[in-house]
Each structure stands twice: as C-alpha cells, then as structure tokens.
C-alpha cells in the first residue's frame, strides 16, 4: 500500500501546507493497517483540515479507509 499527500499552494504558504499534511498523515497512520497491499491512495486535503478538531479529522480518514477496505 502506498499513500501520498498533496497540498496545493492555494491553501497557503509552505508552513500552513506542511502543517495540514502533518495532521492528515498522523490521522492516516492510525488506520493504515486496515488497507490491503494493492492500494495506492492520494489524499488531497482541503483548508478545513487545518482547523477541524483532530478527532473529527481521524474519523474522516477512518471513513475513507473503510470504503477502500470493502
């Protein structure tokens, strides 16, 4: 399984984009074992990923991975 994280420049400067990617990466790390070996996933977060509470971000990532696991 491969997971990529992208963040367009429209979301802000490098510091903001890196912070968004770190938050989403950490949320995804918890659920990586639920995906099979054949998947290649690219996650393109939105601006809201910066301000949403972390448990809610984790919940959204879990929902995405559940859909991929089925």
Structure description:
- By secondary structure, the protein is of the alpha+beta class.
- It has one domain (2-69): Ribosomal Protein S5, domain 2, CATH 3.30.230.
- The protein is 46% helix and 11% strand.
- A two-stranded parallel sheet has the order 1-2.
- α1 (14-29) packs across α2.
- The chain is globular.
- Give the H and E element order: EHEH
CATH fold node name:
Ribosomal Protein S5, domain 2
Name the structural class: alpha+beta
Total separate domains? 1
The oligomerization state is single chain
Report the portion of residues in β strands. 5-15%
Name the average pLDDT: 91
Uncertain residue segments: none
Report Rg: 12 Å
How many distinct beta strands?
2
Gross CATH architecture: 2-Layer Sandwich
Question: What is this entry, summarized?
Answer:
This protein has 70 residues and is α+β, with helices and mostly antiparallel strands. The protein contains two helices and two strands, in the order βαβα. The model has no long low-confidence stretch (mean pLDDT 91).
């Amino acid at each position: 399984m491969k997971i990529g994280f992208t963040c367009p420049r429209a979301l802000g400067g490098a510091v903001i984009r890196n912070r968004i990617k770190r938050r989403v990466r950490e949320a995804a790390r918890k659920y990586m074992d639920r995906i099979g070996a054949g998947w290649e996933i690219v996650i393109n977060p939105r601006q809201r990923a910066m301000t949403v509470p972390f448990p809610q971000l984790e919940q959204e990532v879990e929902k995405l991975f559940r859909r991929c696991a089925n």
